[in-house]
Design a protein that fits this description.
single chain; 469 residues; Rossmann fold; six-stranded mixed beta sheet; 18 helices; binds pyridoxal-5'-phosphate
């Protein structure tokens, strides 16, 4: 499989190189040159497969030429063997023809484990083969950091540095990062906010001289391997609900358009997905596009669903690329307009095309809490605030009551106790068994000033399993 840039002016890469790449050299994002397409018979024959075997069939075309079948099978079995629920992504029925797909049974209790557990193992496999080491530098406001650290903790050839804003992440989220100890794991608390952290990561990608030749790898959702891993659970859920004989709809709590883009790809690969609901909080740039063809930056608002607090959606460019007939030149132009003016819209017929599949809703904090309370009252299930937004949007946007609607349950409610409490749920939530001693574990973290020189010096000093690069 070859991968091309959405802006049409960077070299095509194979899977191995795309795994190690961040943005393409022309500023675009990598996408498969040709998406694999499965027949209905082929998809039907996968019903009942264990998760890792289904994952092998769905993802095999993407890694072909870079990883052998035997190795890939083993990597997948290990990856999903680390999940706490034997169904990996169980469906829980909330209502008539309405389900939540629980994607929070991985080590850090959010859906990001599906991709980052795999990413760590893929990196290790490929780096060992090439005899290379890499450094990962990432910024987090919560879920990504712990999932990335958990995913890379056993990697022989990766040193990972995760920046979080000092005293501005919840205690559960901080401890999920800082209690994972290892000579290749480095938590840095920056005396600044999340944007400061993100800016330092961006600047480090732009000028890598401080790394003395060691390659820098991205773990945010612009990394193609993350999107790829997320395609699998759409197939998994739909097969259980009668696909491919029957169509299925999905509602996806989204910020950077990564998770929902995976659903869009599943459909283009042959899965009968009849509707995708874009569910946002009040940071609703995606809802503004889907409802009115207006994609523009606004100020950031802190919400009860912090993992979706974004101003622009980094993966949206991948959808725009398809909407423009995969014309890289047209897309480069569109994105440079966006860069200059902070806004874009597309030609009417392209927007109409998108609306055939996508609907959207922006959900307030108030409605998020009301949904958590309502679902709890009727079913006894406690939803996390992100998942609650997905449920609310599914209920408002649903086109057809006889089509199964699956809401992606993106996080375990125990990660977001404030929202659960605000929703008036008296029940105390317990950490799952593998995290039950989280508050007794030793923490390791370095506090650094809000200065890129200090961060880069720290990385250079510790980037080789705790030793200088
Ligand atoms: C990251 C995250 C999201 C948003 O996912 P995108 O791929 O950025 O759309 C939603 N919910 C939770 C709990 C997350 O951690």
């Amino acid at each position: 499989m070859r991968y091309i840039s959405t802006r049409g002016n960077a070299p095509a890469l194979n899977f191995e190189d795309v795994l190690l790449a961040g943005l393409a050299s022309d500023g675009g994002l990598y996408v498969p040159e040709n998406l694999p397409r499965f027949t209905q018979e082929e998809i039907a024959s996968w019903a009942g497969l264990p998760y890792h075997e289904l994952a092998f069939r769905v993802m095999r075309p993407f890694v072909e030429g870079s990883i052998s079948d035997t190795d890939f099978k083993q990597i997948l079995e290990e990856t999903y063997g680390a999940f706490a629920h034997s169904a990996i992504a169980p469906l829980r029925q909330l209502n008539a023809n309405e389900w939540v797909m629980e994607l929070f049974h991985g080590p850090t209790l959010a859906f990001k484990d599906f991709a980052l557990q795999l990413l760590g193992r893929l990196l290790d496999h490929i780096l060992l083969k090439r005899g290379e080491r890499v450094v990962i530098i990432g910024a987090t406001s919560g879920d990504t950091g712990s999932a990335a650290i958990e995913g890379c903790r056993r990697c022989e050839n990766v040193d990972i540095f995760i920046l979080h804003p000092h005293q501005r992440v919840s205690e559960v989220q901080r401890r999920q990062m800082t209690t994972i100890l290892g000579e290749n794991i480095h938590n840095i608390a920056i005396e600044g906010n999340f944007d400061d952290c993100q800016e330092m990561v961006k600047a480090s990608f732009a000028d890598q001289s401080f790394l003395k030749g060691t390659r820098l790898v991205a773990v945010n959702s612009i990394n193609w391997a993350r999107i790829m891993a997320q395609i699998v659970y759409y197939f998994h859920a739909a097969l259980q609900l009668g696909a491919p004989a029957r169509s299925v709809a999905f509602s996806v709590p989204t910020g950077n358009f990564g998770d929902i883009f995976a659903g869009y790809l599943a459909r283009n690969m042959g899965l009968p997905v009849s509707q995708l609901v874009v569910a946002t909080n009040r940071n609703d740039i995606l809802h503004r596009f889907m409802s009115g063809n207006q994609y523009f930056k606004e100020t950031l608002h802190a919400s009860l669903s912090p993992s979706m607090d974004i101003m622009v959606s980094s993966n949206f460019e991948r959808l725009l690329f398809d909407l423009h007939g995969r014309n890289g030149v047209a897309l480069a132009e569109l994105m440079s307009t966006f860069k200059a003016t902070g806004k874009l819209s597309v030609e009417e017929d392209r927007w109409v095309e998108a609306r055939k599949l996508f609907d959207s809703l922006a959900v307030s904090d108030e409605d998020t809490c009301a949904t958590i309370a309502d679902v709890f009252k009727r079913t006894g299930e406690v939803l996390d605030p992100h998942t609650a937004i997905g449920v609310k949007a599914a209920r408002e946007c649903r086109r057809n009551l006889s089509t199964p609607m699956v809401v992606l349950g993106t996080a375990h409610p125990v990660k977001f106790p404030d929202a659960v409490e605000k929703a008036g749920i008296g029940k105390a939530l317990e950490l799952p068994a593998h995290l039950s001693d989280l508050f007794q574990r030793e923490e390791r973290c370095t506090v650094l000033p809000n200065a890129i020189e200090a961060v880069q010096a720290f990385v250079a000093q510790h980037g080789n399993r705790g030793k200088p690069l």
